[in-house]
Amino acid sequence: MIGKHFGEIVLKNFGYEFSPAQKNAVGLFSQFFFGQKEDSLFVLKGYAGTGKTSLVAAIVNTLLSFEYKVVLLAPTGRAAKVFSAYAGHSAFTIHKKIYRQKSATDGEGEFDLGFNGGTDTLFFVDEASMISNSGEESNFGSGHLLDDLMEYVYNGRNNRLVLIGDMAQLPPVGLDVSPALDPEALRFLYNMEICEAVLTDVMRQAEQSGILFNATAVRHLLGSGKTTPELKITGFPDVCRIGGAELLEEIDSCYGKYGVDETMIVCRSNKRANRFNEGVRRMILYREEDFSCGDKIMIVKNNYFWAKDYERIDFIANGDIATVLKIEKRAELYGRHFARTRLMLAGYEEEITAWVMLDTLTSDAPALTYEENRDLYRSVEADYTDLASRKKRFEKIRENEFFNALQIKFAYAVTCHKAQGGQWDAVFIDQGWVADGMLTDEYWRWLYTAVTRARKRLYFVNFKPEFFDRKEG
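User: That's the sequence. What structure does it adopt?
Assistant: C-alpha coordinates below.
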Protein backbone atom coordinates (compact mmCIF):
# COMPACT_ATOMS: atom_id res chain seq x y z
CA MET A 1 0.00 0.00 0.00
CA ILE A 2 1.51 3.31 -1.10
CA GLY A 3 0.44 5.23 2.04
CA LYS A 4 2.23 2.74 4.30
CA HIS A 5 5.35 2.80 2.12
CA PHE A 6 5.26 6.62 2.14
CA GLY A 7 5.10 6.62 5.96
CA GLU A 8 8.10 4.29 6.17
CA ILE A 9 10.19 6.61 3.98
CA VAL A 10 9.12 9.65 6.04
CA LEU A 11 10.18 7.79 9.22
CA LYS A 12 13.57 7.01 7.67
CA ASN A 13 14.06 10.66 6.66
CA PHE A 14 12.84 11.81 10.10
CA GLY A 15 15.62 9.90 11.87
CA TYR A 16 13.80 9.23 15.17
CA GLU A 17 10.94 7.06 16.33
CA PHE A 18 7.61 8.83 15.84
CA SER A 19 5.68 10.00 18.87
CA PRO A 20 2.01 8.89 18.80
CA ALA A 21 0.97 12.38 17.60
CA GLN A 22 3.64 12.39 14.87
CA LYS A 23 2.65 8.92 13.68
CA ASN A 24 -0.98 10.04 13.55
CA ALA A 25 -0.01 13.21 11.64
CA VAL A 26 1.89 11.22 8.99
CA GLY A 27 -1.08 8.84 8.63
CA LEU A 28 -3.52 11.74 8.20
CA PHE A 29 -1.19 13.44 5.73
CA SER A 30 -0.95 10.23 3.67
CA GLN A 31 -4.74 10.00 3.53
CA PHE A 32 -4.94 13.65 2.49
CA PHE A 33 -2.20 13.44 -0.13
CA PHE A 34 -3.09 10.12 -1.75
CA GLY A 35 -6.84 10.75 -1.43
CA GLN A 36 -6.46 13.29 -4.26
CA LYS A 37 -9.53 15.31 -3.24
CA GLU A 38 -9.17 18.63 -5.03
CA ASP A 39 -11.21 20.63 -2.50
CA SER A 40 -9.13 19.54 0.49
CA LEU A 41 -6.59 21.34 2.62
CA PHE A 42 -4.18 20.06 5.29
CA VAL A 43 -3.46 21.98 8.51
CA LEU A 44 -0.48 20.86 10.60
CA LYS A 45 -0.31 22.57 13.97
CA GLY A 46 2.46 22.02 16.48
CA TYR A 47 3.99 23.69 19.50
CA ALA A 48 7.69 24.39 20.00
CA GLY A 49 9.66 21.19 20.65
CA THR A 50 7.07 18.82 19.20
CA GLY A 51 9.17 18.05 16.12
CA LYS A 52 6.99 19.96 13.67
CA THR A 53 9.86 21.35 11.60
CA SER A 54 11.70 18.00 11.49
CA LEU A 55 8.51 16.21 10.46
CA VAL A 56 7.72 18.74 7.72
CA ALA A 57 11.31 18.45 6.42
CA ALA A 58 10.97 14.64 6.31
CA ILE A 59 7.62 14.86 4.47
CA VAL A 60 8.94 17.41 1.96
CA ASN A 61 12.09 15.38 1.25
CA THR A 62 10.05 12.19 0.85
CA LEU A 63 7.74 13.89 -1.67
CA LEU A 64 10.75 15.23 -3.59
CA SER A 65 12.38 11.78 -3.64
CA PHE A 66 9.14 10.47 -5.21
CA GLU A 67 9.41 13.36 -7.72
CA TYR A 68 6.19 15.03 -6.61
CA LYS A 69 6.02 18.79 -7.18
CA VAL A 70 6.20 20.93 -4.04
CA VAL A 71 6.45 24.70 -3.46
CA LEU A 72 7.56 26.08 -0.09
CA LEU A 73 6.21 29.47 1.05
CA ALA A 74 6.26 31.69 4.14
CA PRO A 75 4.78 35.12 5.01
CA THR A 76 8.13 36.95 5.33
CA GLY A 77 11.60 36.79 3.85
CA ARG A 78 13.11 35.76 7.19
CA ALA A 79 10.54 33.00 7.67
CA ALA A 80 11.16 31.76 4.11
CA LYS A 81 14.90 31.63 4.81
CA VAL A 82 14.31 29.58 7.99
CA PHE A 83 11.91 27.25 6.11
CA SER A 84 14.39 26.75 3.27
CA ALA A 85 17.20 25.95 5.75
CA TYR A 86 15.36 23.25 7.65
CA ALA A 87 13.54 21.70 4.66
CA GLY A 88 16.62 21.74 2.41
CA HIS A 89 14.63 23.17 -0.51
CA SER A 90 14.15 26.70 -1.88
CA ALA A 91 11.37 28.70 -0.21
CA PHE A 92 9.74 31.97 -1.29
CA THR A 93 7.60 34.63 0.31
CA ILE A 94 3.87 34.24 -0.39
CA HIS A 95 3.84 37.70 -1.97
CA LYS A 96 6.67 36.91 -4.39
CA LYS A 97 4.99 33.71 -5.54
CA ILE A 98 1.37 34.75 -5.96
CA TYR A 99 1.45 38.43 -6.98
CA ARG A 100 2.63 40.16 -10.16
CA GLN A 101 3.35 43.88 -10.43
CA LYS A 102 1.01 45.79 -12.73
CA SER A 103 3.62 48.28 -13.84
CA ALA A 104 7.34 48.47 -13.13
CA THR A 105 7.22 52.27 -13.27
CA ASP A 106 4.36 52.63 -10.81
CA GLY A 107 5.82 54.07 -7.61
CA GLU A 108 2.70 53.05 -5.70
CA GLY A 109 3.50 49.40 -6.41
CA GLU A 110 0.15 47.91 -7.39
CA PHE A 111 0.23 44.11 -7.54
CA ASP A 112 -2.36 41.81 -9.14
CA LEU A 113 -2.91 38.18 -8.23
CA GLY A 114 -0.83 36.15 -10.66
CA PHE A 115 -1.97 33.24 -12.82
CA ASN A 116 -1.12 29.81 -11.43
CA GLY A 117 -0.32 27.58 -14.38
CA GLY A 118 1.08 24.82 -12.17
CA THR A 119 -0.61 21.43 -11.90
CA ASP A 120 -0.42 18.55 -9.39
CA THR A 121 1.57 20.72 -6.99
CA LEU A 122 1.50 20.74 -3.20
CA PHE A 123 2.05 24.17 -1.63
CA PHE A 124 3.49 24.15 1.91
CA VAL A 125 3.13 27.41 3.86
CA ASP A 126 5.12 27.71 7.11
CA GLU A 127 4.48 30.25 9.91
CA ALA A 128 0.82 30.37 8.85
CA SER A 129 -0.13 32.01 12.16
CA MET A 130 1.20 35.26 10.64
CA ILE A 131 -1.17 35.23 7.64
CA SER A 132 -3.81 37.93 7.94
CA ASN A 133 -7.07 38.27 6.07
CA SER A 134 -8.03 41.70 7.36
CA GLY A 135 -7.83 43.64 4.11
CA GLU A 136 -4.92 45.87 5.15
CA GLU A 137 -2.69 45.05 2.16
CA SER A 138 -4.57 47.13 -0.39
CA ASN A 139 -1.59 47.21 -2.78
CA PHE A 140 -1.79 43.44 -3.24
CA GLY A 141 -4.61 41.72 -5.09
CA SER A 142 -7.85 41.84 -3.10
CA GLY A 143 -6.02 43.11 -0.01
CA HIS A 144 -6.89 39.83 1.76
CA LEU A 145 -3.78 37.65 1.78
CA LEU A 146 -5.41 34.39 2.88
CA ASP A 147 -8.20 34.75 0.28
CA ASP A 148 -5.65 35.44 -2.45
CA LEU A 149 -3.43 32.52 -1.41
CA MET A 150 -6.40 30.14 -1.54
CA GLU A 151 -7.51 31.45 -4.93
CA TYR A 152 -4.00 31.21 -6.40
CA VAL A 153 -3.34 27.65 -5.22
CA TYR A 154 -6.71 26.15 -6.10
CA ASN A 155 -6.99 27.89 -9.49
CA GLY A 156 -4.29 25.51 -10.69
CA ARG A 157 -5.40 22.01 -11.67
CA ASN A 158 -5.11 19.47 -8.85
CA ASN A 159 -3.06 21.81 -6.63
CA ARG A 160 -3.52 21.71 -2.88
CA LEU A 161 -2.33 23.52 0.21
CA VAL A 162 -0.65 22.57 3.49
CA LEU A 163 -0.75 25.24 6.22
CA ILE A 164 1.82 24.82 9.01
CA GLY A 165 1.99 26.82 12.21
CA ASP A 166 2.05 27.17 15.97
CA MET A 167 -1.32 28.16 17.41
CA ALA A 168 0.26 29.47 20.63
CA GLN A 169 2.12 32.25 18.76
CA LEU A 170 0.89 35.79 18.30
CA PRO A 171 -1.91 36.10 15.73
CA PRO A 172 -1.74 38.88 13.12
CA VAL A 173 -1.93 42.42 14.54
CA GLY A 174 -5.48 43.32 15.56
CA LEU A 175 -6.78 39.73 15.56
CA ASP A 176 -7.54 37.33 18.43
CA VAL A 177 -6.94 34.16 16.41
CA SER A 178 -4.91 33.21 13.35
CA PRO A 179 -7.46 32.55 10.58
CA ALA A 180 -5.10 30.30 8.61
CA LEU A 181 -4.83 27.88 11.55
CA ASP A 182 -8.54 27.86 12.44
CA PRO A 183 -10.20 24.84 10.72
CA GLU A 184 -13.72 26.12 11.43
CA ALA A 185 -12.95 29.48 9.84
CA LEU A 186 -11.33 27.76 6.84
CA ARG A 187 -14.37 25.51 6.32
CA PHE A 188 -16.75 28.45 6.60
CA LEU A 189 -14.75 30.78 4.32
CA TYR A 190 -13.77 28.35 1.57
CA ASN A 191 -16.13 25.37 1.81
CA MET A 192 -13.15 23.03 1.88
CA GLU A 193 -12.60 19.62 3.43
CA ILE A 194 -10.08 20.39 6.20
CA CYS A 195 -7.69 17.65 7.34
CA GLU A 196 -6.07 18.62 10.65
CA ALA A 197 -3.18 17.15 12.64
CA VAL A 198 -1.94 18.57 15.94
CA LEU A 199 1.44 17.87 17.55
CA THR A 200 1.44 18.41 21.34
CA ASP A 201 4.06 15.98 22.74
CA VAL A 202 7.46 17.57 23.35
CA MET A 203 10.11 15.27 21.85
CA ARG A 204 12.40 13.44 24.26
CA GLN A 205 15.57 14.92 22.74
CA ALA A 206 14.12 18.42 23.33
CA GLU A 207 13.52 17.91 27.06
CA GLN A 208 17.04 19.05 27.99
CA SER A 209 16.51 22.43 26.33
CA GLY A 210 15.76 25.24 28.75
CA ILE A 211 14.39 27.30 25.86
CA LEU A 212 11.78 24.64 25.07
CA PHE A 213 11.06 23.89 28.75
CA ASN A 214 10.22 27.54 29.38
CA ALA A 215 8.30 27.90 26.11
CA THR A 216 6.16 24.94 27.20
CA ALA A 217 5.67 26.41 30.70
CA VAL A 218 4.39 29.66 29.16
CA ARG A 219 2.24 27.85 26.62
CA HIS A 220 0.45 25.91 29.38
CA LEU A 221 -0.82 29.24 30.75
CA LEU A 222 -2.96 29.86 27.65
CA GLY A 223 -6.60 29.53 28.64
CA SER A 224 -5.69 28.56 32.21
CA GLY A 225 -6.45 31.89 33.90
CA LYS A 226 -3.17 31.63 35.82
CA THR A 227 -0.87 34.64 36.08
CA THR A 228 2.54 33.08 36.90
CA PRO A 229 4.45 30.83 34.49
CA GLU A 230 7.06 29.24 36.84
CA LEU A 231 9.97 29.79 34.51
CA LYS A 232 13.05 27.70 35.26
CA ILE A 233 16.74 28.53 34.88
CA THR A 234 18.53 26.04 37.15
CA GLY A 235 19.92 23.01 35.34
CA PHE A 236 19.66 24.55 31.88
CA PRO A 237 22.86 25.92 30.29
CA ASP A 238 20.93 27.66 27.48
CA VAL A 239 18.75 30.02 29.58
CA CYS A 240 19.74 32.82 31.90
CA ARG A 241 18.06 35.48 34.05
CA ILE A 242 19.82 38.85 34.20
CA GLY A 243 19.26 42.39 35.43
CA GLY A 244 20.16 45.71 33.86
CA ALA A 245 23.66 45.79 35.40
CA GLU A 246 24.79 42.68 33.48
CA LEU A 247 22.92 43.41 30.26
CA LEU A 248 25.51 45.30 28.19
CA GLU A 249 28.27 42.85 29.06
CA GLU A 250 26.11 39.87 28.07
CA ILE A 251 25.02 41.47 24.78
CA ASP A 252 28.65 42.26 23.99
CA SER A 253 29.61 38.66 24.81
CA CYS A 254 26.91 37.32 22.44
CA TYR A 255 28.07 39.68 19.69
CA GLY A 256 31.52 38.13 20.06
CA LYS A 257 30.30 34.52 20.24
CA TYR A 258 27.36 34.49 17.82
CA GLY A 259 27.75 37.74 15.85
CA VAL A 260 25.58 40.86 15.70
CA ASP A 261 23.33 39.31 13.04
CA GLU A 262 22.61 36.28 15.25
CA THR A 263 21.77 38.27 18.40
CA MET A 264 18.41 39.96 18.97
CA ILE A 265 16.70 41.91 21.76
CA VAL A 266 12.90 41.49 21.79
CA CYS A 267 10.81 44.25 23.41
CA ARG A 268 7.19 45.07 24.19
CA SER A 269 7.11 48.44 22.40
CA ASN A 270 8.87 50.59 19.83
CA LYS A 271 9.77 53.02 22.61
CA ARG A 272 11.66 50.30 24.54
CA ALA A 273 13.31 49.07 21.34
CA ASN A 274 14.54 52.61 20.63
CA ARG A 275 16.14 52.83 24.07
CA PHE A 276 17.91 49.52 23.59
CA ASN A 277 19.06 50.43 20.09
CA GLU A 278 20.50 53.70 21.37
CA GLY A 279 22.31 51.92 24.22
CA VAL A 280 23.74 49.18 22.01
CA ARG A 281 25.05 51.64 19.41
CA ARG A 282 26.56 54.05 21.94
CA MET A 283 27.89 51.74 24.66
CA ILE A 284 28.74 48.48 22.85
CA LEU A 285 29.39 49.39 19.21
CA TYR A 286 30.74 52.87 20.05
CA ARG A 287 28.86 54.52 17.18
CA GLU A 288 29.06 58.28 17.60
CA GLU A 289 27.25 59.23 14.40
CA ASP A 290 23.45 59.13 14.30
CA PHE A 291 23.73 56.65 11.40
CA SER A 292 26.85 54.69 10.43
CA CYS A 293 28.35 52.09 8.11
CA GLY A 294 27.84 48.66 9.61
CA ASP A 295 24.53 49.57 11.27
CA LYS A 296 21.83 46.90 11.24
CA ILE A 297 18.47 48.38 10.26
CA MET A 298 14.92 47.21 9.70
CA ILE A 299 12.54 48.52 7.05
CA VAL A 300 9.32 49.53 8.82
CA LYS A 301 7.04 50.24 5.86
CA ASN A 302 6.54 48.35 2.60
CA ASN A 303 8.41 50.08 -0.22
CA TYR A 304 7.88 49.41 -3.94
CA PHE A 305 9.88 52.28 -5.40
CA TRP A 306 13.47 51.07 -4.97
CA ALA A 307 12.88 47.43 -5.88
CA LYS A 308 11.99 48.14 -9.51
CA ASP A 309 15.67 48.26 -10.53
CA TYR A 310 16.43 44.81 -9.08
CA GLU A 311 15.33 41.60 -10.74
CA ARG A 312 15.22 39.42 -7.60
CA ILE A 313 13.31 41.89 -5.40
CA ASP A 314 9.63 42.59 -6.07
CA PHE A 315 9.30 44.97 -3.15
CA ILE A 316 11.15 45.79 0.07
CA ALA A 317 8.92 44.56 2.86
CA ASN A 318 8.04 45.89 6.27
CA GLY A 319 10.23 43.78 8.58
CA ASP A 320 13.11 43.19 6.14
CA ILE A 321 16.50 43.58 7.81
CA ALA A 322 19.50 45.16 6.07
CA THR A 323 23.11 46.13 6.82
CA VAL A 324 24.46 49.57 5.94
CA LEU A 325 27.43 49.11 3.58
CA LYS A 326 28.08 52.73 2.62
CA ILE A 327 26.58 56.18 3.22
CA GLU A 328 27.12 58.13 0.02
CA LYS A 329 25.64 61.49 0.98
CA ARG A 330 23.08 63.20 3.19
CA ALA A 331 20.30 65.67 2.53
CA GLU A 332 17.96 67.86 4.56
CA LEU A 333 14.76 68.95 2.85
CA TYR A 334 11.00 68.81 3.22
CA GLY A 335 11.60 69.13 6.97
CA ARG A 336 13.23 65.68 7.06
CA HIS A 337 16.72 64.13 7.17
CA PHE A 338 17.81 61.64 4.50
CA ALA A 339 20.89 59.58 3.61
CA ARG A 340 21.73 58.00 0.25
CA THR A 341 22.78 54.54 1.36
CA ARG A 342 24.05 51.27 -0.05
CA LEU A 343 22.44 48.35 1.78
CA MET A 344 22.73 44.57 1.89
CA LEU A 345 19.24 43.08 2.24
CA ALA A 346 19.29 39.97 4.44
CA GLY A 347 17.56 36.96 2.90
CA TYR A 348 18.14 38.25 -0.63
CA GLU A 349 21.91 38.76 -0.26
CA GLU A 350 21.38 41.61 -2.72
CA GLU A 351 22.93 45.08 -2.57
CA ILE A 352 20.62 48.00 -3.22
CA THR A 353 21.13 51.76 -3.22
CA ALA A 354 18.33 53.95 -1.89
CA TRP A 355 17.53 57.10 0.04
CA VAL A 356 16.61 56.28 3.64
CA MET A 357 14.73 58.52 6.07
CA LEU A 358 16.67 59.06 9.29
CA ASP A 359 13.80 60.63 11.26
CA THR A 360 12.03 57.29 11.79
CA LEU A 361 15.13 55.80 13.46
CA THR A 362 14.30 57.31 16.84
CA SER A 363 10.54 57.86 16.55
CA ASP A 364 8.40 56.01 19.11
CA ALA A 365 5.81 55.36 16.39
CA PRO A 366 6.20 52.20 14.24
CA ALA A 367 6.79 54.39 11.13
CA LEU A 368 5.74 57.87 9.97
CA THR A 369 2.30 58.64 11.34
CA TYR A 370 -0.63 59.52 9.05
CA GLU A 371 -0.16 63.21 9.86
CA GLU A 372 3.61 63.06 9.20
CA ASN A 373 3.03 61.33 5.87
CA ARG A 374 0.47 63.99 4.94
CA ASP A 375 2.89 66.79 5.87
CA LEU A 376 5.67 65.20 3.81
CA TYR A 377 3.31 64.87 0.84
CA ARG A 378 2.37 68.55 1.05
CA SER A 379 6.01 69.63 1.36
CA VAL A 380 7.01 67.64 -1.72
CA GLU A 381 3.93 68.90 -3.59
CA ALA A 382 5.15 72.47 -3.10
CA ASP A 383 8.01 71.67 -5.51
CA TYR A 384 5.52 71.06 -8.30
CA THR A 385 3.24 74.09 -7.98
CA ASP A 386 4.11 75.00 -11.59
CA LEU A 387 2.00 72.02 -12.68
CA ALA A 388 -1.64 73.08 -12.90
CA SER A 389 -2.95 69.51 -13.09
CA ARG A 390 -3.40 67.83 -9.69
CA LYS A 391 -3.00 64.44 -11.39
CA LYS A 392 0.39 65.45 -12.85
CA ARG A 393 1.52 66.75 -9.45
CA PHE A 394 0.51 63.43 -7.90
CA GLU A 395 2.49 61.50 -10.53
CA LYS A 396 5.58 63.64 -9.86
CA ILE A 397 5.29 63.13 -6.09
CA ARG A 398 4.87 59.41 -6.57
CA GLU A 399 8.19 59.29 -8.45
CA ASN A 400 10.02 61.59 -6.00
CA GLU A 401 13.02 59.78 -4.46
CA PHE A 402 12.70 61.51 -1.09
CA PHE A 403 8.96 60.92 -0.78
CA ASN A 404 9.76 57.24 -1.43
CA ALA A 405 12.71 57.07 0.98
CA LEU A 406 12.90 53.83 2.97
CA GLN A 407 11.48 54.28 6.46
CA ILE A 408 13.84 52.49 8.84
CA LYS A 409 14.67 51.72 12.46
CA PHE A 410 17.76 50.22 14.02
CA ALA A 411 17.41 46.44 14.31
CA TYR A 412 19.50 45.47 17.34
CA ALA A 413 16.22 45.46 19.28
CA VAL A 414 12.75 44.99 17.80
CA THR A 415 9.17 44.37 18.89
CA CYS A 416 7.97 40.77 19.07
CA HIS A 417 5.65 41.15 16.06
CA LYS A 418 8.64 42.32 14.01
CA ALA A 419 10.72 39.37 15.27
CA GLN A 420 8.03 36.81 14.42
CA GLY A 421 9.07 34.44 11.65
CA GLY A 422 12.78 34.86 12.44
CA GLN A 423 15.13 33.00 14.76
CA TRP A 424 18.46 34.02 16.24
CA ASP A 425 21.18 32.11 18.09
CA ALA A 426 20.94 34.45 21.10
CA VAL A 427 17.78 36.28 22.17
CA PHE A 428 17.31 38.78 25.02
CA ILE A 429 13.68 39.26 26.12
CA ASP A 430 13.00 42.54 27.88
CA GLN A 431 9.97 42.26 30.12
CA GLY A 432 9.56 46.01 30.48
CA TRP A 433 6.71 47.33 32.62
CA VAL A 434 3.97 44.76 33.16
CA ALA A 435 1.01 45.39 35.47
CA ASP A 436 -0.93 42.47 36.98
CA GLY A 437 -3.97 43.21 34.82
CA MET A 438 -1.85 42.74 31.69
CA LEU A 439 -1.07 39.07 32.44
CA THR A 440 -3.67 37.67 30.04
CA ASP A 441 -3.51 35.21 27.15
CA GLU A 442 -2.37 38.06 24.91
CA TYR A 443 0.71 38.57 27.09
CA TRP A 444 1.46 34.84 27.30
CA ARG A 445 1.30 34.56 23.50
CA TRP A 446 3.72 37.48 23.30
CA LEU A 447 6.13 35.82 25.75
CA TYR A 448 5.83 32.38 24.11
CA THR A 449 6.54 33.89 20.69
CA ALA A 450 9.55 35.80 22.08
CA VAL A 451 10.99 32.72 23.82
CA THR A 452 10.71 30.61 20.67
CA ARG A 453 12.79 33.10 18.65
CA ALA A 454 15.92 31.72 20.40
CA ARG A 455 17.94 28.85 18.96
CA LYS A 456 20.92 28.48 21.34
CA ARG A 457 20.80 31.01 24.16
CA LEU A 458 17.94 32.85 25.89
CA TYR A 459 18.09 35.69 28.41
CA PHE A 460 15.18 36.87 30.59
CA VAL A 461 15.95 40.55 31.23
CA ASN A 462 14.54 42.31 34.32
CA PHE A 463 11.81 39.70 34.79
CA LYS A 464 9.77 39.71 37.98
CA PRO A 465 10.98 37.18 40.60
CA GLU A 466 7.47 35.71 40.90
CA PHE A 467 7.67 34.57 37.27
CA PHE A 468 10.18 31.90 38.28
CA ASP A 469 9.85 28.56 40.04
CA ARG A 470 10.05 29.10 43.82
CA LYS A 471 12.99 26.68 44.00
CA GLU A 472 14.96 29.17 41.88
CA GLY A 473 15.28 31.46 44.89
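The chain has three domains: 2-203, 205-288+413-472, 296-410.
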